[in-house]
């Protein structure tokens, strides 16, 4: 709920280790550029080897976000508290892939709450803005975007 | 050329694909189950927004990037999820070139900024995405 969201707080959502198999499987369906399909295909490019599709990296942020929320819901249920309910997102801005993600990399995903305000246009609702990131096992930023989600007051 | 508009693609979204993507990447009930979708504000089983992004990527590849000199994108300026995408929808892409220029730092490439609209069979825009794509230049600009 809106009041529970603490501006400045950074949540660690979870971590995911990319395998070559998963990178290639995603790319075959959705992003079959040569540098996402094989090590050899990537060697011929400035990537120097196989790299994950940026949409694969982004889609796993979503999975980590959902699993994190499900863990919180289970903890609340165990304490007899009602589930928190976040509304939909209308999209995002400033999505960046500053470094490639390679097979064997472990990306840890985060959400940091940046600001929030009640919506004048929709009584009973607020909007929460967040900075969402992924860092590899060396602590290097590989993924970031500015998110927003509608939350009941 | 800036202002140039093209339309391409016919991607049929299936229930199996919606559920398969959601079970891997966005396992929320309204992306996994008809009944949960109907009970949600989406009004039915609907594709994950990230799935719509992935579908647009595939349609961009098939529509113009395959065989081009594209060398990837540094990021996405904006994505707006405007309407739900449902199984049975047939999606097409409207592509507008916003501007095109040589890279300031890397003379071997140029950057083209696009606005993509993903449209359903009713002509409704379900998603809008604005982003640059780098293309290798066919010949160096010279000294």
TrEMBL record, chain A:
SUPFAM superfamilies: Thioesterase/thiol ester dehydrase-isomerase
Protein name as it appears in the record: Acyl dehydratase
Positions of the MaoC-like domain: 15-118
Domain of life from the UniProt record: Bacteria
Pfam families: MaoC_dehydratas
């Amino acid at each position: 709920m809106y009041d529970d969201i603490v501006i400045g707080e950074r949540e660690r959502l979870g971590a995911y280790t990319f395998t070559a198999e998963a990178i290639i499987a995603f790319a075959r369906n959705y992003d079959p550029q040569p540098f996402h399909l094989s090590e050899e295909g990537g060697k011929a490019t400035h990537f120097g080897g196989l790299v994950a599709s940026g949409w694969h990296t982004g889609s796993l942020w979503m999975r980590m976000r959902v699993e994190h929320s499900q863990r919180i819901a289970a903890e609340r249920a165990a304490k007899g508290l009602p589930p928190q309910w976040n509304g939909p997102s209308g999209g995002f801005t400033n999505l960046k892939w500053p470094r490639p993600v390679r097979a064997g990399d472990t990306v840890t995903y985060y959400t940091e709450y940046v600001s929030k305000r009640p919506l004048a246009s929709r009584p009973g609702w607020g909007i929460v803005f967040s900075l969402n990131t992924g860092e590899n096992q060396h602590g290097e930023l590989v993924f970031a975007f500015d998110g927003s989600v509608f939350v009941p007051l | 050329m800036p202002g140039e508009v093209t339309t391409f693609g016919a991607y049929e979204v299936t229930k199996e694909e919606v559920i398969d993507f959601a079970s891997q990447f966005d396992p929320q009930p309204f992306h996994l189950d008809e009944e949960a979708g109907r009970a949600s504000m989406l009004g039915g089983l609907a594709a994950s927004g990230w799935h719509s992004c992935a579908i647009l990527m595939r349609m961009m590849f098939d529509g113009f990037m395959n065989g081009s000199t594209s060398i990837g994108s540094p990021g996405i300026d904006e994505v707006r999820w405007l309407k739900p995408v449902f199984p049975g929808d047939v999606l097409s892409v409207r592509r507008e070139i916003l501007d095109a220029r040589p890279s300031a730092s890397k003379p071997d490439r140029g950057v083209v900024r696009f606005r993509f609209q993903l449209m359903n069979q009713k002509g409704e825009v379900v998603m809008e995405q604005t982003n640059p794509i780098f293309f290798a230049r066919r010949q160096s600009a010279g000294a």
